[in-house]
Amino acid sequence: MVKVKIDQDRCKGCGLCTLYCPRRILALSAKVNENSYHPAVVTEPEKCISCLSCYLVCPDGCYQVYREGMVLV
Questions:
Q1: Are the beta carbons of 51 and 41 closer than 8 angstroms?
Q2: I want to staple 17 with a disulfide (CB 3.0 to 4.6 A). Which of 10, 37, 53, 54 is the partner?
Q3: Could you give the CA distance from residue 50 to residue 10 in angstroms, rounded to a whole number?
Q4: Model confidence over 14-59: pLDDT tens digits?
Q5: What are phi and psi of 64, to 5 degrees?
């Protein structure tokens, strides 16, 4: 089950989410998005605990976080 969705085209690749993720499962992609940024990606989705850290630190509002089929934010 997907616990985190990242809007790849809104992400500016600032890397804040990669610093604050307690599980260290976020990284910046080698690929670029439509705005020529390297967006964040979830490297190990099965390890996500839906803690909302990525959502809270993202200045661009790129994240949707789910828990047990419910959208948290």
A1: no
A2: 54
A3: 20
A4: 999 999 999 999 999 999 999 999 999 999 999 999 999 999 999 9
A5: -125, 130
H or E element: which one contains 17? helix 16-20
CB 39 within 8 A of CB 29: yes
Residue pair 25/5 in contact by the 8 Å Cβ criterion: no
Q: Are 26 and 54 in contact (CB under 8 A)?
A: yes
Dihedral angle, C-alpha 59, 25, 39, 66, nearest 10 °: -60
Q: The whole model's pTM is what?
A: 0.89
- Report whether pLDDT(71) > 90: no
DSSP class per residue in 24-60 = --EEE-SS--TTS---EEES-GGG-----HHHHH-TT
The one-letter amino acid at 25: I
